[in-house]
Amino acid sequence: MLQAKQSPEASLNDVALAALTVTLQECGVRGNVGVAVPVNVRKISELRKLGNYISTATVRVDCDGSDAVTHLARYKDARRKGRMYAKRGAAMAARGALHIIASVSGRYFLDGAFASRSSSLMLSNVPPVRQELSVMGCPAKWVAALNFVPRTHQMALTLSGYQDMVTVTLQRRIESGGDDRFKDMLEIWKGQVLELAAGGRKTS
């Protein structure tokens, strides 16, 4: 059992963004992985606001000359044009599809309002994405859970799946010689995800 000190500076916002970065790194993403926080970032005190914040933050992932920001923009456009376009857009993204689902999963996990949309996780149906999620350590039952049309009784299930996914990546980083920062993140993440899961079931 990890005995990690709870750093007062590490907010849920910090943990979520750091976890996304670590997740992408553990997936074998080549190139520079990082999260650029907008200058006009507001102090996040509510979970709903946090979900909106992550959707507007610049998540930059250079991979084979590809940029996650481009893929995120494509996904937003796909949502406006419908499911078929979303599938086609994901196929065009190729390796970038993993970046989309990692980011979309993050927002789905943090923003119940977004999760209530039936098209919110359409891109998780793309075979390469599901395969990558399995390779990175996400249990098969949770990969399948990502394909559910979101409903209130399924929220906690998927939240738990995302927790497992992030916990595995952080644990790997610790075992590979990571510093205490990763231990702190893992402990904080475990505590915060339970609170989010409890709130997720109330989402309409």
UniProtKB/TrEMBL annotation:
It holds the Pfam family WS_DGAT_C. Residues 51-170 form the O-acyltransferase WSD1 C-terminal domain. This is NRPS condensation-like uncharacterized protein. It comes from Corynebacterium bovis DSM 20582 = CIP 54.80.
